[in-house]
Design goal:
Blueprint: E1 3-9, H1 17-26, E2 33-39, H2 44-54, E3 58-62, H3 68-78, E4 86-90, H4 98-104, E5 110-112, H5 117-128, E6 139-143, E7 146-149, E8 176-179, E9 182-184, E10 200-202, H6 205-217, E11 222-225, H7 234-248, E12 258-263, H8 270-277, E13 284-291, H9 295-300, H10 307-310, H11 314-319, E14 324-330, H12 337-349, E15 354-359, H13 367-370, E16 378-379, E17 387-389, H14 395-411, H15 418-424, H16 431-445, H17 456-467, H18 469-473, H19 477-494, H20 515-527, H21 530-534, H22 543-548, E18 550-555, E19 559-560, E20 565-566, E21 569-576, E22 579-584
Length: about 600
């Protein structure tokens, strides 16, 4: 019997952990177990053709909210040309309302609900032996025109009894690889499916070490833990991170390795800060789900937290060189436009490296879905079940928030406008007000839905500022000079510029100099031996290389950001391997 396991990932660089667990479990009994991964952006005809030509007897699909629509379209296309094939679907997206799902999708033969590593193998064996699968736990299947839903297994699987998911040689170079060291979550958030079962199970740390070594050997450099709350148990989490450090410290590509963990801010404390203080810089990246700071909302979703208390640790983590992503969810019950704006401002003020503005997904099986009428939750009927309106937040307001999310990603989350945004947001009552006004300006101009080259974003921001000039800045030359310099500084940090737009040209000092004198001064600064003591790479570069990888500019305004204060004067920008760093020219050096 030939078995094919398929995943349609959100992006090509992603991998699917679930089908690798299944492959290793099923391979204990069956010799022909194949695995194929595609992207939801691939052409359906090509994917269907490739699957068809494998000639599998049973095809299993791993389904989530982001790929269910494409997966079902694929099964519908394959069913007429593969009448003898049995199609099985598993994953969180089909683990609830199973009978209704099979009624709506007659092309699917069976659903594996919940944890499938053991159930899927039992199903295969039952089918091969010609028996009905009535004793397979957590299975929904068809029999004599009826849909049968088997009860789940009374006992949760132990992570230490599961097979090693990365047993086969694979090339993970340039891909994002997922691992798990826990299943379950200590919290009971009503928007999350983890609230449907209790308890947390842990993987033995030494089994994780074996997995990590295999991933490193096969080219993996970016690893994401799928643990719902990585720091659910402090001792376990620290031991896992100890292993990451031990296994990566002597790796030849140690500077390229990064692990991504999702932690709960409430569980951070002084001991964690001391641990992070001594952890290698750049090795770990953290994501923390704030979701909201509105207490009534947090109580409704069973996720009470004290953001004001645990956010004190954010500046420490940033000082330790830990990239930090904070998440907000728009559309939660009882959070209206004003209170969401307050949540936004409170999170924005702590200056995370990324502020991810997401929208509530009213998932099948979640507590909020069961109580959707009580809270007036209106959501899309199809995956990913995105919120459309609530009792206190209209569809129109959610559309505005979607536009804010777009602008936030282009400007703040890109990290390319750090100096400019640091000044511009202070011109508005709150950061939320700035992003709202800017997003509506984009809407009026018809800029959404189009692809813009990076530097065109500078033009858009400047046009917005000019439109608001009298209201926000008047004719104060100092204010305009500060903004222009901040934006120009960011422009140089983006990449080595071939030209500078007119609105970013500096005429203050340059206006007192002959253009040739200005050019000569900047070139003399660039050729100065001063840089050999500041930038070690300078010594090994000839004149042509040096000039190709540097730029010089003068700034009059002092630019403040979270990292350091940029004093006025000449700056040299050094561009190397996709990275850029600015150095102030010390004329006395």
């Amino acid at each position: 019997m030939r078995i094919l396991l398929v995943a349609l990932n959100a992006k090509y660089i992603h991998t699917n952990l679930a089908i690798r667990y299944l492959r290793e479990e099923v391979s204990k009994v069956y010799s022909e177990v194949l695995l194929r991964e595609f992207s939801i952006n691939d052409h359906l005809d090509r994917v269907a053709g490739e699957i068809f030509e494998i000639k599998a007897d049973i095809i299993g699909f791993s389904c989530y909210i982001w790929n269910l629509k494409e997966t079902l379209a694929l099964v519908r296309q394959l069913r007429p040309v593969c009448p003898e094939v049995r199609f099985v679907i598993g994953g969180p997206e089909v683990s609830f309302e199973a009978e209704e799902f099979l009624l709506d999708h007659p092309e699917v033969d069976a659903l594996v609900m919940g944890e499938g590593e053991k159930s899927f193998l039992e199903l295969l064996q039952t089918w091969q032996e010609g028996h009905d699968p009535s004793q397979v736990p957590g299975l929904a299947w068809r029999f004599d025109g009826q849909i049968i839903v088997n009860p789940p297994s009374p006992k949760a699987l132990s992570l230490n009894d599961l097979p090693f998911p990365y047993g086969e040689e694979e090339d993970f170079t340039g891909r994002l690889v997922y691992v798990e060291t826990t299943r379950g979550c200590p919290f009971n958030c009503q928007y999350c499916l983890s609230s449907t079962f209790q308890g947390v199970r842990f993987l033995d740390p030494e089994r994780f070490r074996k997995m990590l070594r295999c991933l490193f050997k096969n080219g993996a450099r970016t690893i994401k833990f799928v643990d719902r709350t990585f720091n659910a148990n402090k001792r376990h989490a620290m031991r896992i991170l100890d292993i990451v450090r031990e296994e990566s410290v002597n790796h030849p590509d140690t500077q390229e390795i990064r692990v991504h963990c999702e932690m709960a801010g409430d569980l951070l404390d002084g001991e964690w800060m001391e641990y992070f203080r001594n952890y290698p810089r750049g090795l770990i990246q953290l994501e923390i789900g704030v979701q909201s700071t509105h207490r009534p909302t947090l109580e409704i979703v069973s996720r009470p937290q004290n953001f004001e208390k645990w956010s004190q640790y954010i500046s420490e983590m940033k000082a330790f060189g830990i990239p930090l992503h904070l998440d907000l969810i728009a559309g939660l019950p009882e959070e209206d436009w004003q209170t969401f704006g307050k949540s936004f401002n409170e999170v924005y003020t702590v200056a995370p490296d990324m502020l991810q503005l997401g929208f509530l997904k009213v998932l099948r099986g979640s507590g909020l879905r069961l109580q959707s009428m009580r809270y007036g939750l209106v959501f899309a009927p199809d995956p990913p079940y995105t919120i459309l309106a609530t009792k206190v937040l209209s569809y129109s307001e959610l559309l505005q928030l979607q536009r804010i999310e777009d602008v936030l990603d282009r400007y703040y989350n890109s990290g390319k406008f750090k100096h400019a945004l640091g000044i511009i947001t202070t011109l508005f009552s709150t950061p939320f007000d700035f992003y709202h006004e800017f997003a509506e300006f984009w809407q009026q101009k018809g800029w959404f839905g189009r692809q813009w080259q990076g530097k065109a974003l500078f033009d858009k921001l400047w046009e917005f500022l000019r439109e608001l000039s009298e209201e926000k800045l008047g004719t104060d030359p100092f204010s305009w000079s500060r903004i222009r310099d901040a934006l120009r500084f960011d422009y140089y940090l983006w990449e080595r510029p071939n030209y500078i737009p007119d609105y970013l040209q500096y005429h203050g000092l340059k206006g007192t100099m002959d253009s040739e004198v200005w050019k000569t001064t900047s070139e003399e600064i660039r050729k100065s031996s001063y840089w050999e003591s500041v930038i070690p790479e300078r010594i090994g570069m000839d004149r042509r290389q040096w000039f190709r990888n540097t730029a010089v500019a003068y700034f009059t305004a002092e630019l403040d950001n979270d990292e350091e204060s940029k004093k006025q004067g000449w700056y040299l920008f050094h561009y190397q391997q996709g990275k850029v760093k600015a150095y102030r020219y010390d004329e006395e050096g």
